[in-house]
Amino acid sequence: MLPDRAFNEFVLKFANVNGSGSASANLLCAKALFRMGLPVSPKNIFPSNIQGLPTWYEIRVSEAGHLARRAGIDIMVAMNPQTYAADTAEVVPGGSIIYDSTWPRNFGRDDINQIGIPIAALCAEEWSDPRQRQLFKNVVYLGALSWLIEIDIEIIERLLAEQFRAKPKLVEPNLKALQIGRDYVHDKVKIRLPVRARKSNGTADKIMISGNEAAGLGAVYAGATVASWYPITPSTSLAEAFERYASKLRRDPDGKMKAAVIQAEDELSAAGMAIGANWNGARAFTATSGPGISLMSEFIGLAYFAEIPLVLFDIQRGGPSTGMPTRTQQSDILACAYASHGDTRHVLVIPGDPGECFSLTADAFDLADRLQTPVFVMSDLDIGMNDWVVDSLQWDDTRRMDRGKVLDAAGLEAATSFGRYRDVDGDGIPWRTIPGTHPDKGAYFTRGTSHTDTGGYTEDGTIHAAMLERIASKFETAKALVPKPVVRTLSSKSRLGIINFGSTDPAIREAMGLMAREGYGLNHMRLRAFPFSDEVMDFIDRHDFLFVVEQNRDAQMRHLLIAEAEVPAKKLVSITNCDGMPLTAAFVMERVLAVLRENRRIAEASAPPITAA
């Protein structure tokens, strides 16, 4: 009998060729494990070309709930001869490699289980069509794997039926391919793998969803009716998700869709369309990535200075320039915080998982309307394109959109005077009107040039400076409105902490638990917004030293904390990673402990944890 630690704690990796049709089979495996009640963390590692290059799909299974990527592969399904050497090297001693033995292979390792299955030959015996042979190879290895690690076959069969609900004729051949793989290992393979899956209850009230899917749904619930976008990896699926959900949920009684999804000719046009729709009273957004933010900068500056609400989803990827389009990074922090030329400062909302991509999207639209300014939702490729296990999405049906200071016809009628850019109550936010609200009152010019408080053109430097100062004061107002940070205190006596944001959170949480068991009580704050609220400053003030973990080269969030929160630079210890891969707990722990070993003053700021989290 296997020890408990051999069940439900392993990393499975598929090595394929891009364009081979493997993605659906690999996702099927992740979904089956999830439906067995196992928390899973799939990571799709794919090239930026259409087909032909290597692609990988990792699934970490952790009944303990660790969702960060983990180095060291327990089971490698190696289907790409070009990467055999590198793939084999990743397998941990005692691990296993499953490969197509139609052609003889020598992996040069005697410390791993080598399970050969003549997959190509088995498919050639069953199917004559070359494309069918290629596609069903993926289902054959899934069938073999299901036997070897004991994935519930009935769950896989149900998933296949769901997948091909619209094409029921495809169910039977897929089930046949599945059974071919199972029968072969049952009859020919005598090895039972040292790690396996068994049913659990770790996914009760959980769902599997990507951040882009959740954000697209969140935009529908937030009241968005216009999406203008230009295709760019990794944001495209967000606009597609919005269109898909809007087509189901935004229809009038006659069946007409009550939303517009517009593919613009470029990113600048996409931003302009969204700004125009917001100016006209809709809730509109655009979705892009770093290169798109660069191209949108001119219009972002217009929205900032003309004070027009705008929500921009930045699904960050590896940069600069074209960079690594299919790798994750957090390298647009400064670019978005100060997007466009001149004096600008923008609100950033930073979700930590797809669940927050849903909930914070609604907050972003409310903030944009209340503050009459662009608001950036700072996701990244890891959150945006990978499936995560999160709590079921929740929505308060009593929640109503906060449109901010919008004068209706009655308000305009009662007003003694109206100045579109006039602050009447000291929060920096003026009143606005929607075009067509009143037949005679509320008209004004919307200008990107310097203007008076009524929208008139001016080149008076004193007026221009006063306008800039008034707009800047909105940023102070925003500090009380933006999402608060998430704070975890492991030791009330510790003067040592760790700060992170976004998709690095699973790795941070796992690393903190590992370090707690070694006696290091680091407290933790996950940032969820810029500007930094009072709660952020309180956490910083309570600690002598703070590790700032981020996935970029130049420690951009650390720079923002120094510049905007005036945190002394010596107080912030930078830990950066920019290799494009999701962060691991081992990387975080290694870097933190290296600093503690080398710097006695920082190490002394730690205190034993209250509990080994």
How would you summarize this macromolecular structure in one to three sentences?
With 613 residues, this protein is an alpha/beta fold. Residues 19-182 form the Pyruvate/ketoisovalerate oxidoreductase catalytic domain.
How would you characterize the overall build of this protein?
By secondary structure, the chain is α/β, with parallel strands linked by helices. Helices cover 38% and strands 19% of the residues. The chain contains 20 helices and 21 strands. Strands 8, 9, 10, 11, 12, 13, 14 and 19 form an 8-stranded mixed beta sheet that branches. It has a 6-stranded mixed beta sheet with strand order 2-3-1-4-5-6. A 5-stranded mixed beta sheet has the order 16-18-17-20-21, sandwiched between helices. It is globular and about 90 Å long. The protein starts with 8 loop residues before the first strand and ends in a 9-residue tail after the last helix.
N- and C-termini, Cα separation: 30 Å
Poorly predicted runs of 5 or more residues:
none
What about the largest sheet? 8 strands, mixed
Task: Decide which structural class fits the backbone.
Answer: alpha/beta
What is the average of the pLDDT values?
95
Q: Counting H and I runs of at least 4 residues, what is the number of helices?
A: 20
Cα radius of gyration in angstroms: 27 Å
- Quaternary structure state of the chains depicted: single chain
